[in-house]
Amino acid sequence: MRTIWKGALTFGLVNVPVKVYSATEDHDVPLHQVHEKDGGRIRYQRTCEVCGETVAYADIDRAYVEEGQTVVLTKDDLAALPSEKSREIDVVEFVPSDQVDLLTLDKPYYLEPDSKSPKAYVLLRKTLEQTDRTAIVRFTLRQKTRLAALRVRGKVLVLQTLLWADEVREAAFPALDEDVRISKKELELSASLVDSYSADFDPESFVDEYQKELRTLIDAKIEAGDTFDVSDAFGEAEGDAKSGEVIDLMEALRASVARTKAARSDSSGGTSKAKKSPSKKKAG
What we know:
Layout: E1 5-11, E2 14-22, E3 62-66, E4 69-73, H1 75-79, H2 82-85, E5 88-96, E6 105-113, H3 119-131, E7 133-140, E8 145-153, E9 156-162, H4 184-196, H5 209-223, H6 230-234, H7 249-266
Parallel strand pairs: 1-5
Antiparallel strand pairs: 1-2, 2-6, 3-4, 5-7, 6-9, 7-8, 8-9
């Protein structure tokens, strides 16, 4: 992994030097645009509206327009801002971990201890674990002040940027204010359906089906000299899905529970892919 930032975690008089790494990576199949007629690659050029010249990225500055006036901000201007110069991740407060809204979590980063002794790093990690707290921190990265949650994942400290409060939209849907009556039987059937799907979460058992199919499509095109029928790669769909609106919620729940029970019964001779939680029992 490549270091993207170096600095120090600070809270009180404690200073923890760290290196920052991106915790995720993109595995999507890279695609680019081409001309349908001849396959020529489509490229975009940065053109100046005043002189018409193509401008190199190194010669591009930022600007802000207000009431017809344009204020140009050079790279040196932005680099001179106090926050941009800071190499500190400042702990603002320690909060109960369950108070951090999952909706606000954004980009995750790994923090590696960057000193001869990792004692301060380990101390902070163990303290967060024992107190079940998450540190809310503020830092600047790539000319942007960011709020983030500092938490523990295994043996590593994870810095996960947070959306600002005004970046999260309010869920103002009139339908949510309607008085909807749910019967006891509906809740029981719904709970039974949930229980029939219960398992311990195993992220590695899930794959990106679209990327997998896209890779299959590309390989098939290469194998066939770029000319073939898509159905040759994937085969015909197994049965046509029946369309129609589900009117009776109870019937839908009953059907779902029955179908799941039947599927589990058919596979009882083998090992289920889903790992059952020790505290859960099969429905029925």
